[in-house]
Amino acid sequence: MFKKMYSMLALLMVLSMILSACASTPAPSTGSDTPEDLTLKVLVHQNPPMVAFMEEFNKKFEEKYPYITVDMSVVNANDLSTVTQTRLTANDVDVVDMFGFANAAQPYMSQVDAPNWQQLIDAGLLMDLSDQPFVKNYDEAAIQDAGTYNGKVYEINLGRVSYSGIYYNKDLFTANNVKVPTTWSELVTACETFKSIDIPCMTAGGKDGWPIFVGAYGLIGSIYPDQEALVEGLWNGTIKWNDAKSLEMWEKMQVYARDMMEEGASGIGGDAAPGRFASGAVAMFPGGTWYGPAIEEAQPSFEWGYIPFPGSDNADDNKYLFGKYDQGWAVAANTPNKDAAMLYLAEFSDPENYQAFVDAVGFIPTQPTAQLNTAIGKEVAPYLENFRVGYEQYWIAPKGAGQFANPWASYFKPFGTDDDPKVLADKVQADLQSGLDAVK
Amino acid sequence: MAYYFGSKRSRWTPYLLLLPGIFFYVLIALGPSIATSVYSFTNATGLKGAQIDWIGLDNYKEFLFMGQAAKDNFAALGRTLIFCFFVTTIQFGLGLLVAVIINQNLKGRNIFRTLYFMPVILGAVIQGLIWSLFLFPLGGPMARILELFGAQSEFLGGQPAEAFAWVIVIQIWANMGTTMIIFLSGLQTIGAEMYEAARIDGASSWQVFANVTWPLLTPSVNTNLTLNIIGSLQAWQLFLVLLGYRNGTQVLGYLIYAVGFGQTSGSVTSSFRQGYAAAASIILFLLVLVIGLGVNYILKRREERIMG
Predict the structure, then answer these.
(1) What confidence tier does A1 reach under pLDDT thresholds 50, 70, 90?
(2) Which ranges in B118-157 belong to alpha helices (H)?
(3) pLDDT over 90 (residue A157)
(4) B210 secondary structure, DSSP code
(5) Burial degree of B53 (CB within 10 A; 0-12, 13-18, 19+)
């Protein structure tokens, strides 16, 4: 019995040695000029037009550099920071997609933690890109504002986006003789007109949570056009979320959440919302410029426009577009594939490739030579001189602040529990004040 | 009682055999738990290479006492207990009921067994996707059913209390199969002669259940109650998949995840705070420990009373 078992074991060992010898035979050296095959791991967030572009770009990159295989992972935008944290820590990624640097601690903020991008750099996990030639392809302001920390460049930012506008269905507006709104009253009237003929006024990807409140950021902008000053005012107490000016904002937010948003919007995913709008079922869609390509792709013949959210009854207050620096590239400091990563970024930064990228995703370019060719680009072009970085890019909540310490329209019913603007305004200010008092 | 492993060196055999298990327990369970308790006294970010400072009880003070956020944490603690109560009682009751029914000599009982157990093997993401589609407010199956009665709902995206209630339902659906299988295995250890004797004595169906089935199911009852309580106190994945970070819906398990991985600020970037999340984990651990030990004590006494 034992003899048989030993024979079997011996046979298995011999077989496995032969197999492993076959498997581990190294490829014959092709000389020192040919680089070894390698896999470049790239991490991006889910944005369908961008992912489609990247897949094409990766194919061309692999054709140009046959020894490099690009292994691209796509994660939900909400999970990007988590996956970036874990994969950088595990040294399991080479190139990461990061949103533009924002939310840096300001001198008037006390006891706040550094934002996650700063934590990554301080931990030595991101590579200094300052000396890379491709950095010069981008405009200095974008490199400085969205990718520089302590005088060194850690990210090349690929474009600005606005999130404070509204897409509108041109055919529905024309067919129903509705004027494209430039003031809050006109917006309310437009919604009432559409609702009276059973056309939902607005939709948004409420299932992801943030599209509801981000959709109303333009409303905050029309009341507080200087959003950096707004954040400082909230921290030093000169602006309160329950003062008269803010109360007007809350009242309008309630109208937005309760009367303007279609029933069932909370079940629509962020990725599905552009399709819902492009189907012609709703008149308007408050959202970011990044949705433009998805709307075009869903219904190429669909006629739409994009206007700043008219939150004020004075049209001059509604001329601003608020937004942020969106996606950028950063490289893992400890990557074993530094040369390949630099080739990847250099290839991407080539003006021709970059133009194709902004054409695909609808970003407002950060390369000075790039053109605004897209439909959304043409829509936002008239407002570009009034482009401002939005409130949320400056804001850091004080420790101890409650979970309602934000200017979010989603606190109102049907998305939240509140239906009284005054009560909500007091609650939001109390939640914020609680944190401000705690860190004094 | 004779010692089966001989004398001298052979006496060490059982301990040697236990070594691999102990090694993996220390590596996977005990080690990280100790590390978590140490991290809870630091400002660790979870990033390799980041400086870690000893900050004493600051994380605990912040979690328990700092501003409105501390009150929100207690609200999450309260929701965790509510979630635990409803999930444990309903899942326990339903699992027992289904196991008793399936244990009968019914046609096709294997199919039902498989159907009831199937959700367990799906995983939180698939479970979440199935229910998100089922509860889609714009024409999803459940919305259509409600339409028949002239009603409508935003389901998971609506009022926090309603969304929270749906997560309870989905958690029960997702895990009831395990409870059922444990009860089923318990039921199958009860000999047919016990039932036969009770019937001969003229016991009704209820009396058979109350005086034969229920007492003899005691080990399964204890196992299920313990698993259900611990499982529901630690639940977080379905909250992440179905609701995300929404005010009025967080339980402690999900709060820990959101804080640890910088997901508490909606669409903006927030900080990685694994030291703080570790402190919250220890608080959750203490909660599970106190409730678990209490329940275990009661169940043990009950078992001793019944089984002798």
Answers:
(1) very low
(2) 124-134, 141-148
(3) yes
(4) I
(5) exposed
Strand partners, A364: A160
What share of residues in chain B are helix, strand, coil (percent, to 5)? 75, 0, 25
Structural domains in chain A, CATH included, are: 38-161+324-387 (3.40.190.10), 165-319+397-438 (3.40.190.10)
Note the ipTM here: 0.81
Domain spans of chain B? 67-307
User: Sign of the CA dihedral A39, A43, A48, A54?
Assistant: negative
Which of A243, A214, A257, A248 has the alpha carbon at shortest distance from A391? A214
Instruction: Using an 8 Å CB-CB cutoff, list chain B residues near A399.
Output: 62, 66-67, 69
Which among B47, B157, B159 is the nearest to A123, CB-wise?
B47
pLDDT tens across B186-207, in order? 999 999 999 999 999 999 999 9
- Per-residue pLDDT at B265: 56
Contacts B156 to A, Cβ<8 Å:
207, 266-267
Q: With H, G, I as helix, E, B as strand and everything else as coil, classify residue A407.
A: coil
Q: Give chain B's mean pLDDT.
A: 90
CATH number of B67-307: 1.10.3720.10
Query: Which two three-digit tokens encode residue A9?
Result: 């074991």
| Residue in B257, B268, B270, B276 to test binding to A, most A beta-carbons within 10 Å | B268
Q: Across the interface, which of B66, B143, B272 has its CB nearest the CB of A119?
A: B272
Give per-residue pLDDT as tens, A312-332: 999 999 989 999 999 999 999
Q: How confident is the model at residue A9 (pLDDT cuts 50, 70, 90)?
A: very low
Packing angle, helices B274-307 and B31-39, rounded to 10: 130
- pLDDT value at residue B306: 84
Q: Which of A85, A99, A231 to mutate to test the interface with B (most CBs of B within 10 A)?
A: A85
Residue B50 and residue A417: Cβ atoms within 8 Å?
A: no
From chain A residues 214-253, the ones with a CB under 8 A of any chain B CB are 214
Tokens of A398: 């004080």
